Amino acid sequence: MDSTPSSSPSSPFDLVSSALGRYIPRGGSAAATGPATTRGDSTARRRVPDDPADNRHDRILGVVNLDRDLRITRCNLEAAVFTGLDAVAGSPFADLLPPGDVPTVTRRLRQVLEIGEAHVARIQRLRRGDGSELVVSLSILPAAAPQEGLTVSLIAMAKRLHLYAAETAIGTSLDIGETAQSLAESLLAWGDVAAVDLDFAVWTGEGFTEQAHGRIRLRRAALVPDRVWPEGYVTPGNDLPSDASRLLAQAIRRDDAPQAIVIPDREAVERLLGSPRVIRALVPGERSASVACIPLVLDGAPPVVLGVAEVWRRADSPFRDSELFDLQELVARTAHHVDLARQHQREHTQVLALQRRLLPRTRGHTVEIASVYQPATPDSAGVGGDWVNSFPLPDGRTALVVGDVVGHGLGAAATMGQLSMEARALLSAGLAPDEVLEHLDETVSLLDDAESGLAAGYSALGSSCCIALYDPLSHQVALSSAGHLPPVLVLPNGHADPLDVSPHPGLGAEFALREPFEVHTFDTPPGSLFALYTDGLVEDPALSIDEGIRRLTDAVSTVHPWDPLPQAARHVVATLAPVRQRDDVTLLLVRMIGYRKGDTATWRLPARDDAPARARAHVSALLRQWHTRGDTQDDVPLLVSELVTNAVRFATGPITVRLIRAGHGLLCEVGDTGNGRPRLSRGGLLDDGGRGLRVVHTLTTRWGVRWTDTGKVVWAEVAR
Known about the structure:
Blueprint: H1 12-20, H2 26-33, E1 61-66, E2 72-76, H3 102-115, E3 119-127, E4 133-142, E5 150-156, H4 159-170, H5 176-187, E6 193-199, H6 200-204, E7 218-224, H7 242-252, E8 253-254, E9 257-258, E10 261-263, H8 266-273, H9 276-282, E11 290-298, E12 304-313, H10 321-358, E13 367-374, E14 384-392, E15 398-408, H11 410-428, H12 433-447, H13 450-455, E16 458-471, E17 476-482, E18 488-490, E19 496-498, E20 520-523, E21 529-533, H14 545-557, H15 565-576, E22 585-592, E23 600-605, H16 611-625, H17 630-650, E24 655-662, E25 665-672, H18 691-699, E26 702-707, E27 712-719
Antiparallel strand pairs: 1-2, 1-5, 3-4, 4-5, 6-7, 6-12, 8-9, 10-11, 11-12, 13-22, 14-15, 15-16, 16-17, 17-20, 18-19, 18-21, 21-22, 23-24, 24-25, 25-27, 26-27
């Protein structure tokens, strides 16, 4: 007759304990299922007799009751697999956990206490009294009324079940570090210490190359359990000594074929490793005596070794053939996950390199710039098509560009790069923002269609883009937008508002929806702050988009004129970015500086034959005032004279001459009302045609043409 004191017939503890009767002899379980005394009755933890009929390996169930202080009140851990777990009544449940797992499991236990909802099937390691660990599936159940506390059921992970659970867990992440860590945690079920060492090319996502054994380089990617390791032992993130890498490679590549090996005792381990330095680097402690080394092999012709997994055990627990077979099966099943993570790492590196290549410079002569790019997730699947760019144009203006390609991944980033580079080329050629958007609109229509883009997880159709050109002389911004959110402008007096930009469909919209792109012009006095961004910064499920833009406006308006702009940009993003970020976050902050009055001069001349002489006189006097070099005082008047002569000859109306002192150079501009484009031609020695442009080409570092509403401006840059 069962002597177990009666408790609530529906309590989780009794329900689980009744199930244990199918696995544990009734003669030994009565004391275990009864209430434990505060002294911790030894019969509650006595081992089941070593009878093959009663001690089968499939006994995997156990149960522990906890009070509200998470202390053990009673337990039933009589199955042989739980031997060594010191579940003493009155002791904290945390004593059964590895130190690194205590905070997480304790938080889960208290969560079930407070909410009353069960937490089931957590793969968890438990610590035995001898320091070894047991892998279990742990479920936390609230105790039935009128009792208080928790019931924790434990299912020891049988090896075949563990193989399935491990493979499922390892395939859940595409981060190579997390994948290696999951593999190491799974391997811990077969030993006391597990490590995963990967070829350096795998760790960085590079392609494979055939290397001599002496040049192989291994990096420790994962190590469990988490504890303080001896000095000199290789921990995650560190490279193995070259001797250790070579020895491991030679051990698993016997006869040029990757094979699993077992080194059975400490003497054999030390004899193989040889050097004390290598022993300190690879052997996890004095108690570790035998090791199984299993190569991570990618099938192919020839097979490619990605790295090696190592499982260490004590001397009194040698590896059996069946266990080695299980280890090989687990590593073989999961090697392809490691390779997928490697490919993902490579894609992630490529995408981030592209994103960084497009990030703007931090400062120019007439503007100060800071940018922040924050992908939605750390992996390449979360890196999308958001971009910002800023670059000086040859005529002294600054181009500010922000865009967003629909979707994420390498395809979206590649499309983003193509659009960004095309925009830069067109702007550098002197096109206006609306003209650039017209070209990008055509490009998007050619690049993609709705079906092919969405099937690939991204689409160029519907991409948004905003282009702003800052003129440091007029202190104005000319802006065009295609489906993008309005920029925010903060004036020097502190007044802040989103700019009033007419909405326009995104790039590649249906022909019936297309409208001419408009150019909006805004005054931006020196000291103004200009913010361009993508929707990830202002979109929040709890707020309307208008409220998000208003929050951004308020945040940008708090930036002090003396605040370092990079720090201010990071602060704005930290303030506004959603906690659960679903999209890329991009911000470009620009502080307008402009040219000083003393660094520019403008003359307006009639288109007459004496215009070149008058221009030379004005320019020569100014260069003497600016104390420029002697050769500059000779070259620049000649250059301006040739440009003005060309304007008088081919244009009508007044001619504007402008000289700008910028950085280490001089910028000369001559504007007229003509629409002909000056072209440098290959003229003969005695051919007068094109002589002026050849002189311009010789005297300048670069020159070009910019079109205006009334004509054109020919500009040229000279070093001073």
